Amino acid sequence: MQIARRRVIVGHLIVLAGGALIGWFYSHVDWGLLAAALLALGWNVRQLLVFEQAVREKNFRHFRYGEGIWSQLFSRFSYQRGQSKQYKKNYRRLVKEVRKSTNAMPDGGIILNNEFEILLCNKAAQRLAGFRRRQDKGQRVDNILRDPAFGAYLSSGDFKEGVEIRSSVDADGWLICRIVPYGADQLLLLIQDITERRRLTTTRREFVANASHELRSPLTVVSGYLDTMASDPDIPAHWGRPLEQMQAQANRMNKIVAELLELSRLEGAGAAPTDELIDVCGIIASVKKSMDGQSDVPEIRVECQSDAQLFGSNAEIESVIVNLLTNAIRYTPHDGQVTLRWAADEDGAELAVTDTGDGIEPEHIPRLTERFFRVDAGRSRDDGGVGLGLAIVKHILERHDSHLEIESQPGAGSRFSCHFGSDRVNVPSSKNFKHAQR
Fold it and tell me: Do 308 and 374 share a structural domain?
C-alpha cells in the first residue's frame, strides 16, 4: 500500500511537471499546470466511477489483477467484505445457539431495552404469558402483562425482588416476574410459573387453619377440666404439681393454636387498611406500662422522636411491638436494657427495638422469621416461646408495606427495625418532638 501511494504521488507530480513544461514552451506555465491538474482529476473521477459501478454490480474484473492505488483499495475492500460476511455468519450462528438454549429453558425470558420494549423472547415466555415473538417485538412489555402489580413494579425501578402476578394465559395460574440488568442498556425479564407452589402454600395454610380450629375445642375442654380440678379443695396434695404442669402445657398449646390461626389469617389477607390512624407512641407507652413491675425484666427505655402516626391496623401494630419487645426481653439479662425507638422523616418512619442481650450468630439471622425456628430451642421452650412471633411480625409488616431488618452481633445485642414508607406515615401539623422515658 505504501508503494502504491508513492507511485500515485510521483505520477501526479510527473503529470504536473509535464504540464508546466509544455506551458513554459508556449509561455503559459499556469495554463499548463491547470490542464495537467484537470487531466489528473478527470482520471481519478473516472476511476472512482468505475469502482462505484464495480461495487454496485459486484464485478471487479477491472481491478482484480491490476496495479495501483485503486487495485489496492479493491483488495482492502474485498478483505473487509469477507471479514464482515464471516462476522455475520458467526453472529447468526451465535444467535441461533442462544435461541436454542433459551428455548430449552423452562422459565420465560424476554430481552427488553431501557424503555421496557420487547426485543426478543423465548418459547417459554410465549407459553407462560402469551408473548408472540414477531408480533410483539417493539411493544412495551406492560402492554402484554397488564397486571397492575407488574405496572407498579416497572414504575418503581426497584428490581431487587420479583413480583407475583396472575397468568394471562391460565386463569388459575400464577407467575413471578423479575427484571435483571442484561447487556448495555438492556434488561432481562425472567418469568417463572409458581402455580404449584402457591397451590401447595394455600393447601398448607388451609390445613394449619383447619387443624388449629379442630384442636381448639378439645383443648378448651381439657383446660376447663384442669382448671376445675386445680380449684377443687378435695384434690390430693400430691396431684398439685402434675396439675400445674398440665395446665402450663395446655396454656402453651392454646397459645400455639391462637398464633397459628393468626398467622394463617395474615398469610391470606391483603394490604392493611389505610383509613385508620395509629398512635404508635401511645401503643409503645401502653406496652411498656404493662411490662413494668414484672420480675426479671430488664430496663425498658422508650424514645419517641416523632408524633407521626401510621395508617394501618392498630391491633396488628400493637402485636408487632409486643412480639419484638417480648423477644428482646427473653434474650436480655435482667440487668441489661431494651430500647424502643420511634422516629420519622420525609422518607418514612422507623420502629426499632434494640437490646443488650446475647446477640445472634450471623448464620441464624436469615431464618429468624421462619415459623417455629428458634436459635436456642431449649431456652425458648422454657421461657414460653413457640417460634411464631417473628413470623407474625413479618407478615404484619408486609401487610403494612414494610419490612423487618435485623442487625446483631454475638455478645453485643440485637436491633430489630421496621421501616415504613412515607405513604403509610401521617405527620401532624405540629412539629416533631423528642421524648425519652425510662
Answer: yes
Do 304 and 381 belong to one domain?
A: yes
Do 309 and 429 belong together in one domain? yes
Which residue in 437, 398, 419, 436 sits closest to 345, CA to CA? Answer: 419
From the list 163, 204, 217, 251, the residue with the least C-alpha distance to 371 is: 204
What percent of the chain clears pLDDT 90, i.e. is strictly above it? 13
Confidence bin at 295 (pLDDT 50/70/90):
confident
User: What is d(CA 408, CA 413) in angstroms, rounded to the nearest whole number?
Assistant: 6
Give residue 214's domain range.
197-268
Residues near 235 by Cβ (< 8 Å), separated by ≥ 6?
229, 243
What whole-number distance in Å separates Cα of residue 353 and Cα of residue 415?
A: 6
CATH assignment at residue 148: 3.30.450.20
Strand order from edge to edge, sheet including 425-426? 277-278, 309-311, 425-426
Total domain count, the chain: 4
CA 176 to chain centre: 11
pLDDT in tens, 70-118: 666 776 777 777 788 888 888 888 777 767 766 777 888 888 998 899 9
300, burial (CB in 10 Å: exposed 0-12, middle 13-18, buried 19+)? buried
**Where is the domain boundary, 227, 242, 268?**
268
User: In sequence order, which residues have a C-beta less than 8 Å from that of residue 230 and are 6 or more positions away?
Assistant: 243, 244, 247
Q: Which of 249, 268, 287 is the last residue of a domain?
A: 268
pLDDT above 70: residue 434 = no
User: Is residue 170 pLDDT above 80, yes or no?
Assistant: yes
186 with 221, same domain?
no
Cell numbers representing residue 333 in the block? 439479662
Residues 297 and 403 in one domain: yes
Provide mean pLDDT across the span 140-159: 88
pLDDT at residue 363 in the model:
85
pLDDT value, residue 1: 53
